[in-house]
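TL;DR need C-alpha cells for one chain.
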Amino acid sequence: MSLFANRIYSKTITSLPTLILFLVVILGLNINIIYKNYDFIVNFSYIIVFFWSLKKPEHLGYGLIFFAGIINDVIQGLPIGISSLEFLLLSVVGAFVRNRTIIFNLIYDCISFLIGILIVGSINYIILVTIFKIPIVYESLILGLFVTFLIYPIFYKIFVWIDNLVLVAENDKKNR
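>> reply
TL;DR here they are.
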C-alpha cells in the first residue's frame, strides 16, 4: 500500500468506535420488538457508549458522546438533552468501574453494565414521566433494558475484536 492509503486506513481504524456510534445514532439502529403488547427497544447506543468509555475512553470523548446524544434526541423525537444525559451517565459509570477495577473480565463488565443501564433507565423514566408528561410503559422500558443487557456479551466480543484492530493500526503507526 502507498503511504497515503496507510494513513487513511490507520485513521479510519482508530476512529472506528466514533464512526460506529454516530452510524448507530444517525441511522436509528435500535431494534423495536413487540411481544405480548409490550413494545420495547434494544438500545445499541448504550452498549457502544458503555464499552468504549470503560475500555478505551480516548477513542470516544465526552463531547462526542454528548453530541451523539443530541443527534439521537433529534432522530428519535425525544426532548433535547435526554439521550445526552443518559449517554454521559453511562460513560460516568464506565469511568468509575474502570478506575475501581483491577481485573477486567466479561462478568464484571456485564454486572456494571446492568447497574449502569438500570440507573439510566430509572432516570430516563423519572424525567420523561414527571417533567415532560410523556406516557411510558414501565414494563416495556425494563424489558428493553434487560434484552440490551442480554446482548451485551455478543457486542463485547465484537468490540474486543475491533479494539485489537485499533491496537494493530496504532502499533503500525508508531513503528513507521
